[in-house]
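Bug: token stream looks shifted between consecutive jobs. Job 1:
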Amino acid sequence: MSESTEWCTVVNKKRERRKERFLEVLKEREKWDNLKSKCPFIVMPQRADRIKRKLNIDKLDEKFRSDEWINYQVVQGWRYIKTLKLVDINSIPKNTETAVYSTLQFENEWGDIALFCRE
């Protein structure tokens, strides 16, 4: 009989953990949906993952998910354009009357930079 109660306890704990993870995912999804409604050009986590894999930049997706970068995009209104390598630093566009450009460092050993624009 004790084996059956132990088994039920194990199953219940697994079920509770699964439910907690599901609720965390729902909260995270709701957070990003709210941000997307406020700021339609924000870089969503899926896009950040694709950019990270394509450019092979460590922790790029974590940067885009950080509060600092979310604030930079949502509150301050900067739109992500592209990622520049250290050798491409001369290709940063000049500010014009209609567009202003800014950069943020990824703080990695290769000196990668994210280019943002505010129109």
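Job 2, same session, no restart:
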Amino acid sequence: MRSFTTKWTIQDYLNTPEAIAGYLEAVFEGGDPKLITTALEDVARSKGISQIASDAGVSREALCGVLGKLANFKHAPFFGVLKAMKLTLKVWVEEGPGPFKAE
């Protein structure tokens, strides 16, 4: 019996503002800085890095630089403080037009 597999990427499933918000919220709950950075990169790729950069008013290179710096940013203590305060970050979909907003 022969089996076939296809390449799976999260970007294929980040196709609605609600899916993106749910994905980011789940990642933020974990508080893992590397996973958060990866998730933000996943979202940017799902929308197109050039498009996100344009919408943000920065160059593609600047956006990639920011995402790269986030990977090295030591925000683990930030999530530790939130957890100690019994707080968490939430992500929701804004109303109105835009790349991550309900239309």
